[in-house]
Amino acid sequence: MKIIAGNLLVLMVQDKFDIVVHGCNCFHTMGAGIARELSEVYPQVLEADRQTQCGDYTKLGSITVANTIQSYVVNGYTQYGMASSAGECVVVYDAVGSVFERVKKLAKAIRPHSPETVRIGYPKIGAGLAGGDWKIISKIIDQVLDGMDHTLVVYKP
Fold this sequence. Notes:
The chain is α/β, with parallel strands linked by helices. The chain contains 5 helices and 6 strands. Helix 2 crosses helix 3 and helix 4 packs parallel to helix 5.
């Protein structure tokens, strides 16, 4: 995993990533964090989410994809609900792994002969508002995306 400091949306506009992945819940709620920013700048991100059934527990581990001019934005269903208090963990670690397995398949669909060249960017999925442990999550991502070009973007205004 490469790690850079920056603003994921700015880097996306600068064409630094082919796929941008963010974690979301299963309730069509993109009211905070990077999900809010993405859905405000790219309404098709929320529209892709709304093509699924609201509150469907079986969405955990699945993805929806919005195609923007700059890149594909992946809504990765990594949590069922939202944390009701600071420190509460609502991320589902198995769902994180499933989301990134699907991201890997998307990269293969984009470039069948060289999926390892697809540039994938993401924030600390599941470790912010969802309260997950980044040490666990980063290991899952590294394991699934081994050999792929993937980058953690640590927010820097």
